[in-house]
Inverse folding.
């Protein structure tokens, strides 16, 4: 594809696991993605929390200067199942609302390693 796109990506939604996996490359990739988003002045939208891959992407993005929006169902936020939101938090009633809000706040999507929960969110 040649030329400049009329649509600039400003917000990328990242879907990934709340478990780091068993390979250090997964963590390295999540950290690198966060840094690249910030370097390119792209804001991160993600499923909230600071655990594992979600935490690595969001922390790296925030530390490097990106705006970070974590969208999380209220029940998960209250029970602190996923750790603290790294920056801005938007609580929604249900998981389905979370997915719709992530979609509404994003221009593009990236999926990193995850389990069945990650697959459920993207399909």
């Amino acid at each position: 594809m040649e030329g400049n796109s009329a649509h600039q990506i400003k917000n990328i939604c990242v879907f990934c696991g709340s478990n780091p996996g068993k390979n250090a490359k997964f963590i390295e990739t999540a950290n690198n993605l966060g840094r690249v988003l910030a370097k390119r002045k792209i804001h991160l939208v993600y499923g909230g929390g600071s655990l594992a891959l979600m935490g690595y992407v969001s922390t790296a993005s925030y530390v490097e200067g990106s705006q970070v929006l974590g969208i999380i169902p209220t029940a998960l936020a209250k029970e602190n199942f996923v750790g603290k939101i790294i920056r801005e938090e938007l609580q929604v009633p249900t998981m389905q609302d979370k997915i719709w809000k992530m979609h509404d706040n994003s221009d593009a999507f990236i999926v990193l390693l995850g389990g069945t929960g990650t697959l459920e969110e993207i399909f």
